[in-house]
Amino acid sequence: NAPSGEGIAYVVNEEKKRGVPIMRLFREGRALGTALLWVVNFMNLLNLYFLSNWLPTVVRDLGYSNSNAIHAGAMVQVGGTLGAFALGWFVHKLGFVPVLTSCFLLGALSIAAIGQPSLGIVLLFTVVFVAGWCVPGAQAAINALAAIYYPTDLRATGIGSGLGIGRIGAITGPLVAGE
């Protein structure tokens, strides 16, 4: 165990780097990783905001009541909340790549299943819960992945820029769905 108590300080000695931090995200072998994190953030937040904004309409258009449609929309957030906690445990045990890959595949399948007219209400809510687990739930893991990918002096810039690109997806998702 590391010592703790009054007067104990932990310091990471890093040299101060010069230059524009956003440009440094693409240097020292980080260009591909940064681009992939931006794509993952873009697509995940596109899906999240698409689900959040359009799921009640889709469910209502499948013939369910307004009440069921609203509850289905809430189920995305319930799945996302529980998924964020559980995925942290899975990432710790199995690693980011297998967990996020599995999560995104399962999320894609569950989102594809949402619009199937033959789903009963229980199965629909289950599929929506899984979509929530896999889309908003995975966002916490994406942020954690970015936090360990970048060195300390680029961490805030790396996470923030990924989320900024993700917000473009968040705007795009509902607009594309509306069209």
Structure write-up:
The chain has helices spanning 21-24, 31-61, 66-94, 96-114, 121-134, 136-149, 155-178. It is mainly α and 179 residues long. It starts with 20 loop residues before the first helix and ends with a helix.
Topology summary:
Layout: H1 21-24, H2 31-61, H3 66-94, H4 96-114, H5 121-134, H6 136-149, H7 155-178
User: Which value, in Å, is the CA radius of gyration?
Assistant: 19 Å
Low-confidence stretches: none
Question: The biggest beta sheet, please?
Answer: none
SS element count, helices: 7
> Average pLDDT, to the nearest integer?
93
Termini separation (Å)? 57 Å
Percent range for β-strand residues: under 5%
Element string (H = helix, E = strand): HHHHHHH
- Globally, the shape reads elongated
Which structural class do you get from the secondary structure elements?
mainly alpha
Helix content: over 70%
Total beta strand runs: 0
